[in-house]
UniProtKB/TrEMBL annotation:
One of its GO terms (biological process) is triglyceride catabolic process. Signal peptide: none annotated. Gene3D superfamilies: alpha/beta hydrolase (3.40.50.1820). Residues 479-503, 549-567 have a biased composition (Polar residues). Residues 337-483, 700-761 form the Alpha/beta hydrolase fold-3 domain. This is Hormone-sensitive lipase. One of its GO terms (molecular function) is triacylglycerol lipase activity. InterPro entries: AB_hydrolase_3, AB_hydrolase_fold, HSL_N. The gene is Lipe. It comes from Eumeta variegata (Bagworm moth).
């Protein structure tokens, strides 16, 4: 088990932390083994001796550094009832490393006299532990620097500092040791296997991505990453440093594949309604809280006018719900307005459906999830404006989604949490109805690499590597000026912190043009008369067929694969996955506009009713769209078996044909110079400095980073519940944002979970602890839905 961050800074009655004995136990075990192997003249025997002695030296050097951070860490917590901050997290990581090393050392002690004792194996294990502890020692040096940059209780420095200034304080960090044999040592055992599998897939997928999509051959080569941890570590670190944001999108796109999309329907809770609704880009008239009306226009920034897809999930069909006919069940009193995560560049409501189905079942209220546009094609502020537009549409259409709208709760994870916080600022400035509560999971609320201890956790995070995080941030927060469309103007809001000129934004230098609110394309509050004419004239084919008094258009199933209803050119990620699925598992069809839709190849014996039952609903205001039929348990089981059999048959047959294709002759395609450079970077042995990723600017915009919002606006926030994990690079964002709200007198609570990674909600069906975390999310949302029975602001904020 990993060390618990919530307990790592507790002291015993004697005044020494209880983990001190653990460090002493490791030294004693290492001395025992070193003495044993000192007389061993073999190469592996001497390497074991040196490895144990080196480990002892690292323990002696790391302990004083850890001890100091351990003592000061509690002063940075949100409150005494909820211990958690980046300093605690790093102390627990070092403690987990000591526990991991102690376990291996004791295994050596008990098995070294055995006839089949594998010296070579344990040489690599002990040497990797030494490298791991040495790298953590370097991280502790950085933490000491961060402590000197900020006063007690402040996790973000008050003075501007550059990345070079931080990383120059100590030796370079060896990231390879975090992704090899010790990968996932700091997480719960149930999570380690998942993380290892994802890391192997990432390394193997990079082979496919850089070999023109030959998946089977790359899978064959990628098997090396399963048996060679060192090769896997080098590949992952170099991917993090060298791969583009398109690779990140490509890898995360695997969760959007047709096979993965069918997992929720097999493993998750059954819901009666799960449909895509397409919102036409039309002006909306919304009632303000002061009784006046305002017009909200759809976003035109970056990619022009586009329709917007939203997903409606509900346990039951309710009276008035669009496309569901008549129902005896009355509308729900509450509704969940949800935004998915994915680093602003990937995923959709479908990839988050595993836990959304469970939430809809447990809460028994509709969930309205937004499929906002993704960067880098649609960077900031496109997604935020779409989320605000969807919220305003919902205010006018409660009946269509099966709710009276008495209680609205915002919910979002990761990038989605950032968007709902920014949307709340939009709502407050627009003067429309404010939701009754906000639930945010592992939220990045300061979208820039301001130095904080938790941010350094991404140097060892298997799911959110340092390079991935910085590349996604750059893709979303720093759009190219020539990517924008439409008029340019400032989106004015009353935030005093924005108008103050600043020279830097933490690690990232802010250019003069980016001081204050970013001068990008206009928000939809400011559109020229010509844009109004275009809005009125802009009608899709399906919109022309429907009546003029509705803003919902029929959405076909393929809309799930594209954002905001548009069909961008198929990128490399889609080519790779689609090619694999089309060849092995999927058939294809075309929609009314000639676009290809992947379909699972039917069995000759599968009838039409089965295929209709497997498809999702979509909005049925226009045309005839397949409905979700209820079938008996026996039929459901038969459908599941049929689907699995079809998929397995297709994959096995296609693997045979693909193997024949690989072994045959193929045309040789000469790679470009850029591709050759990328491939060579993935195999280099020398790590780059992390500071290389900081060469870009981020605007100090509260819509982008809600932490920078003016206190007067933050004070108007509804009750907020944050949930994060001790090992999350965004932990300090959540803690500092909660502290800020608490200081302003807001109702705010925060939960920090042990041993889980950023994005754990996507693993709710794979690990018990992740599932327990999802259940806690449900409880916090339930409290926000009915705050009359929840503790008030004067009670324990943690609930």
């Amino acid at each position: 088990m990993p060390a618990k961050a919530s307990l790592c800074c507790e002291e015993s009655q004697e005044g020494a932390p209880p983990t001190y004995s653990m460090y002493e136990a490791l030294k004693e075990s290492c001395y025992n083994n070193a003495t044993y192997f000192q007389s061993d003249d073999t190469e592996n025997g001497q390497r074991l001796y040196e490895g144990f002695m080196t480990l002892i030296d690292h323990i002696d050097s790391v302990w004083p550094l850890v001890d100091h951070v351990r003592k000061v860490a509690p002063s940075y917590d949100f409150d005494v009832s909820c211990p958690g901050n980046g300093y605690r997290s790093f102390v627990s990581v070092v403690d987990s490393c000591v526990l991991h090393s102690l376990k291996i050392s004791r295994v050596v002690c008990t098995s070294r006299d055995a006839l089949l004792f594998r010296k070579g194996h344990f040489v690599r294990e002990i040497e990797s532990c030494g490298q791991l502890l040495a790298s953590l020692g370097t991280c502790m040096h950085h933490l000491h620097t961060l402590l000197s940059w900020a006063p007690p209780g402040q996790l973000f420095p008050l003075e501007p500092h550059s990345p070079e200034e931080l990383f120059a304080q100590a030796d370079a960090i060896n990231q390879y040791c975090f992704y090899g044999r010790c990968l996932g040592f700091q997480f719960l055992p149930s999570i380690r296997g998942i993380l290892k599998g994802i890391s192997i897939c990432m390394a193997g997928f990079s082979e496919a991505y850089y070999s023109h999509g030959n998946l089977i051959s790359s899978m064959w080569t990628g098997g090396q990453y399963l048996i060679d941890p060192e090769m896997r570590a080098r590949r992952i670190v170099n991917i993090s440093h060298s791969a583009s944001v398109e690779f990140c999108k490509a890898f995360w796109f695997l969760a959007e594949s047709e096979i993965m999309k069918r997992v929720p329907s097999i493993m998750s809770s059954t819901v009666a309604v799960n449909k895509i609704i397409t919102l036409a880009p039309e002006p909306l008239t919304v009632m303000k809280t002061d009784g006046t009306k305002t017009t909200i226009l759809p976003s035109t920034v970056h990619i022009g006018l586009q329709s917007l897809n939203v997903r409606l999930i509900s346990l039951n069909k309710r009276n008035g719900m669009t496309g569901e006919g008549r129902s005896n069940m009355s509308p729900a009193q509450g509704v969940i307005f949800h935004c998915h995560g994915g680093g602003f560049v990937a995923q959709s409501s479908k990839s988050h459906e595993m836990y959304l189905r469970d939430w809809a079942t447990r809460l028994n209220v509709p969930i309205f999830s937004i499929d906002y546009s993704l960067a880098p094609q649609a960077p900031f502020p496109r997604a935020l404006e779409e989320v605000f537009y969807a919220y305003c549409w919902m205010l006018n259409n409660f009946k269509e989604i099966g709710t009276t709208g008495e209680r609205i709760v915002f919910a979002g994870d990761s990038a989605g949490a950032n968007l709902i916080a920014g949307c709340t600022l939009k709502i407050l400035n627009a003067g429309v109805r404010v939701p009754e509560g906000l639930f945010m999971a592992y939220a990045p609320l300061l979208v820039s690499f301001v130095p904080s201890p938790a941010r350094l956790l991404c140097l060892m995070d298997p799911l959110l590597p340092f390079g991935f995080m910085m590349r996604c941030l750059k893709a979303y927060a720093t759009p190219k000026s020539n990517d924008s469309k439409g008029p340019t103007s400032k989106d004015q809001i009353g935030m005093s912190s924005v108008t103050t000129p600043v020279d830097t934004n933490g690690f990232l230098k802010v250019s003069p043009s980016q001081e204050g609110i970013s001068e990008g394309p206009s928000s939809f509050e400011e559109v020229s008369p010509s844009d109004l004419v275009e809005l009125q004239a802009h009608k899709s084919g399906s919109e022309r067929r429907k009546s003029s008094d509705t803003t919902i258009s029929a959405a076909s199933l393929q809309s799930e694969h594209t954002q905001t209803g548009n069909t961008p050119p198929e990128d490399k990620s889609q080519q790779l996955v689609s090619d694999f699925l089309d060849r092995y598992v999927l058939d294809s069809d075309t929609d009314s506009e000639g676009r290809r839709i992947p379909l699972v190849k039917p069995s000759p014996k599968a009838d039409e009713s089965h295929r209709e039952a497997e498809s999702e609903n979509s909005s049925t205001l226009v045309g005839d769209v397949p409905q979700l039929h209820e079938t008996a348990d026996s039929n459901n089981k038969k459908q599941i078996k049929t689907r699995i059999s079809e998929a397995a048959t297709g994959i096995m047959g296609a693997m045979s044909s693909r193997f024949a294709y690989i072994t045959g002759s193929n045309n040789i395609v000469r790679p470009s110079q850029e591709e050759l450079a990328d491939r060579s970077n993935l195999d280099v042995l020398i790590a780059r400095s992390p500071s290389d990723e900081f060469i870009f600017s981020v605007p100090r915009d509260p819509y982008l980073s809600p932490y920078w919002a003016d206190d007067a606006l933050l004070h108007k926030f509804p009750p907020v519940r944050l949930l994060t994990v001790h090992l999350d690079p965004c932990l300090d964002d959540c803690v500092m944002f909660a502290k800020k709200l608490k200081k302003l007198g807001n109702v705010v609570g925060i939960d920090v979970l042990e041993g889980l990674p950023h994005g754990f909600l996507n693993f709710a069906l794979m690990a018990k602890e992740a599932n327990d975390g999802s259940k806690l999310c449900v409880e916090r949302i339930r409290q926000l839905l009915d705050l009359n029975n929840a503790p008030g602001a004067g009670e324990d904020a943690r609930l």
